[in-house]
Amino acid sequence: MGTVLSFQDLVVWQKSHQFVLEIYSLTKIFPKDELYALTNQIRRASVSIPANIAEGFTKKTLANKINFLSHSKGSLEEVKYYLILVKDLNYISLNDFEKLTQHAEEVSKLINGYAKSIKNYHENNPNNKPTTNQLNN
Questions:
Q1: Are 69 and 53 within 8 A, CB to CB?
Q2: What is the pTM of this model?
Q3: Which of 46, 54, 84, 92 has the most CB within a 10 Å radius?
Q4: How many angstroms separate the CA atoms of 48 and 12, rounded?
Q5: Which are the contacts of 67, defined by CB distance < 8 A and separation ≥ 6?
């Protein structure tokens, strides 16, 4: 992996951002009476995934970085529930459900890997006070 200068350089952020775009596209077909209910909830939860990755990128301490990744992971789980719900309400096809669930699992694994990478860096550099960019390499 090359030098990471911005949260936008992180594959985990890129994949989670693409997931948000897919959720927005999908929710355009939801019934209009869901606009301020389920549509709004699934969109807000999905946006929270890459937003927390981006915000955590700037944090200096391991605890803060991991905390933001934890919030991101929680939002992802929330979206996974909403996907089950919209499938059961027949708002989406089984094919769309499976595709989005698979994408959600990929993002989940990337978040876990990113968190592990940050923890490993911290453990291997206990006397070093790394910069944000060093933690994200």
A1: yes
A2: 0.88
A3: 46
A4: 13
A5: 56, 59
3-state secondary structure of 61: coil
CA distance 85 to 131: 42
Structure letter (DSSP) for residue 6: S
* Amino acid making up residue 70: S
**pLDDT tens, position by position, 65-95:** 999 999 999 999 999 999 999 999 999 999 9
Interatomic CA distance for residues 18 and 106, integer angstroms: 12
Residue type, 41: Q
Could you tell me the two tokens for 64? 């803060």
**Contact, 111 vs 69, CB < 8 A?**
yes
Reduced to 3 states (helix: H, G, I; strand: E, B; else coil), residue 102 is helix
pLDDT value at residue 95 = 97
Residue with tokens 């934890």: 70
Cα(52)–Cα(71) distance, integer angstroms: 7
The region that residue 59 occupies, defined by phi over 0 for left and psi between -120 and 50 for alpha, beta otherwise, is beta
Mean pLDDT of 21-34: 96
Q: Which two tokens stand for residue 87?
A: 């499938």
